[in-house]
Every structure is written in structure tokens, then in C-alpha cells.
Amino acid sequence: MMGCMFEHYSFGFDGIECKVGEEDKEKRCCRFCNTTGKSNFRKIAHAIPEALGNKLLFCNEECDSCNSRLASVESHFVHLMDIRRALCKVPTKKTSKTISLYGENFTLLPDEQGTPNLYVKREEVKHKGNGWYSYHLKNSSEVTNEGIYKALVKMVIDLMPTSELTHFKNTINWINGYQTDRNLPSVFYAVRSPEERLYLQPRLDLFFNTKQKYIDSPYCTAILFTVDIQYIFVVPFVDLDRGQFKYNEQLLEHWKRMFTMLTPRQWVGQNTSDTNPAYTWLNFEFSRSNKNVHILDGADKIFKKYKTEEEKWQLNNHQFPLFEQKLITVESVSNVCFENLCNRWVSQRELSDVSINHNLGESSVEMDTSNNSVLVNLEFDVFNSDNTIPFFRCKGKVKLEVKSMEKFILVTENNDTTNIEMDWTFYKSVVLKSAKAIEGKMRKQRLGTPFVNCSFEAAFDNERLIRAIKVWYL
Ligand SMILES: [Zn+2]
User: Fold this and answer.
1) Ligand 1 centroid vs 36 CA: distance in angstroms?
2) Computed over its alpha carbons, how large is the radius of gyration of the chain?
3) pLDDT score recorded for residue 305
4) N or C terminus: which one in the chain shows less Cβ crowding within 10 Å?
5) Do residues 116 and 106 make contact, with C-beta atoms less than 8 angstroms apart?
6) Distance between CA atoms of 164 and 149, rounded to whole angstroms?
7) What is the pLDDT of residue 101?
8) Cα 22 to ligand 1 centre (Å)
9) Å from CA of 230 to ligand 1 middle
10) Measured in angstroms, how far is the CA atom of residue 67 from the centroid of ligand 1?
């Protein structure tokens, strides 16, 4: 039925292997970075992570470097599914046994036959009566809702026909981390009932509004089926949507239409604009007769991760000292540049919806702890609301001194600078103080342009933007 309205593609439901994109390695062009050349396509890229059980769906047009780089994007969704894929025995590449999982309050290990065995803490088990219990399983991997959304959309980019890609340039920028937006539409999920098919091989359905039959539907909607859950979401930043459909209110009619056409389910909305890390959880119910669930004393050594208790305490309970603004001194401001890219006047109304289209460019924060010195490069481009007309570009460089800087940074694992915890107030203050210093010098450069009131400092009043800046440690 939906085929009449939307151009519909379905992958992975029929056991048929599918490799999307150019077969000839000489002719391939990476969907995420446009790289070409046979030598950059040695590995085969899974369009849906292998950890989710995908053995059929591949993308020819994802280069080796993007394949490894984007694994960190995919990991948000993989971790979200950790408990489900362990309990449902989703096969992985290494073993047909279930994965081992050490959660915050449980341990899941395969037995000799590969069947998942769940170990839970007696103190946290809730009795429901009639021999039934419930347990709030808390995973230990952090994910963000925006990360989950990016991982879902990446699967769509990998599997769509090559001819469609031209409309998804900004979507790809967002996945790559080059673009951020304060507002993103919610995604919806529904848990399938136990009698229904379990998707140990994930399935992805794509719906393109190519016929524009419904003006209140976005260009691309997708449904992912994996294990016992399904996710439905729209793909954001499509050029044909012209900046629409990023607010949930603009999608009410669309969702109403989609939900009536699909099997009735209890759809739950998830706010994807949330960039704060969170733990995933699952409420698990089991009966006394379930031989694969073991209720043990909370002190049992099976609940210990490979880390020592001391390390774990430091990781989870690190309290940074209170950061005070007076610790920061601006040493120098340079390279301040405002460039008007628009050769016509831009109205205030057009400017009310632009701040979301910052293209972060080369912004970076370089921390030199041994010298208490921070070098901040801030740079962004601003476009109109559908990213088609560049408005202006601006940048600046600031050198700061931060007293006792090392107190606000914690290297968590063996001097490995990729494992760093940082005090948020300290980091945010460094960025905001730099933006303010740049604005001090930039303001006069905007005089006489339509952008006279577009404060450089105000642009960074956005935690999402601050988090997206690259951080380097020296
Ligand atoms: Zn690439």
C-alpha cells in the first residue's frame, strides 16, 4: 500500500545478500568523504554493523578510512542494543555464542552451549508475585540520543541508491560531525511482541517521497528492524525538505499517516536533540523456573569487571575541584576575520533560523597542560535555514592561560590521551571566554552588513556546538 505513495526499498528481509553501489573498485567514490582509488577500498563495509548480526547488507561506496572512523558513530546504536543482542543471542563475527556483557548491576555470560546466562544481584531483584521477578538491567556503556540517531541515519546513507545521494550532502556532513543542529526530530521505537519474528539479521526499509504526493511528509523515512525492536525515523537535512521537518510539530501529520499504515504498535518517542551521555537499560522480567537467570549476592566476584575496584571508583566518582572563572586569562587574540558571503541584504526574519547551520570547519581546542596554556581556534560558516545560501564566515584564534589546568583534566587510562575526562565547566568556560574575546574584536567588522547583530559569542551559547569542537592534548 505504501508503495503507491512512496518509493519503497526493503533490505535484509529475504535472506538475499545485497551490495549497494559501484562494483568496480576503480570507479568507486566514498559516500562520506568522496575519496576514490582502488587502494582505499580494500575492506568490505557493513551497511549495518556486523555486531547487530548483519551478514547480508554491504556498501561498496564506503572507503576503509571512513569505515573505521564511523565505527564510533555506529557504536552508539550497537551499545544501545547490547543487552537485547546478548539476551537474544545475536551472532557476532567471532563466535556463534552470545556475547559476554558486564553491566553496572549484572553480568551476562554464555554457558558451554553458548546460551546466555544472566547473573543478577539479589538486593536489586523485585518480586512481582506468582513466581515472577523483574530486574532493571543497567548497561555500563555510555551513548547519546543524537549518536543513536546518527548511527541509524548512517545505515540509510549506506543502503540508498547512488542516484539519491545528491540530496543528502548535509546529512552526510552531520554524520561526519562537520555540522550540528540544535533541533532534530524525534525517532520512535516499538518493541515487538514475543510471538513475532525476531530479526537476528537486521532489516532496513526506506521510503522516499519522490512523488511528493504528500507535502507534509519529508523526503526520506526509514524503519530498522533488529532483534525484537523496530525504529522509525526521518532522515534530517535533506535538501528537498528545504529546512522543514526538523521540529516534531512539523511531523505530526506524517507520523499519523505512517503509524496508521503500519501494524499497530505502541510507538515511543526518543528525543534525539539530547547530546548528553546516558546509560542504556532494559526492564527484564523472568520466572523462578528460568534456569538461565542466577540470583547471587551483590558482592559475588562474577559482577567484577576486569578493572580493579580502585580504578572503577576513580572512574565513576572523580570529583573535579570547583572551577573558577578567574583562573582564565586571555593572553592574545589573533586572526579575527568576518567575511560577508552574501551579496544582497538579509532580513531579520531570515536570520532568526540560521544559528543552527554552523559549519564547524576547523574549530579546535589545544590543551598544553605542562604550560597551563590553551590555544583555541573558533571558526564557523552560517547559511540560510536550508543550507543553500552562504551568509557569512567568521573566525578567530585565542591563546589563554589557565592556572592549575591539570586539576580539571583526568587521564583515565595509562596516559592514553584518548581516554580523558575533563571538567565540563572548565572546558565550556575556555570556549566561551575565547568566543567573547573574538567578538570584542569582530564587532566592528560587521558594521554596515545585515549581520551587524550576529554576535560571535552568542553563537556558542549552545552546548551541542561546544561539544562538537575537536580537542587536542599536547
Ligand atoms: Zn570515505
Assistant:
1) 8
2) 25
3) 63
4) N
5) no
6) 20
7) 82
8) 14
9) 28
10) 7
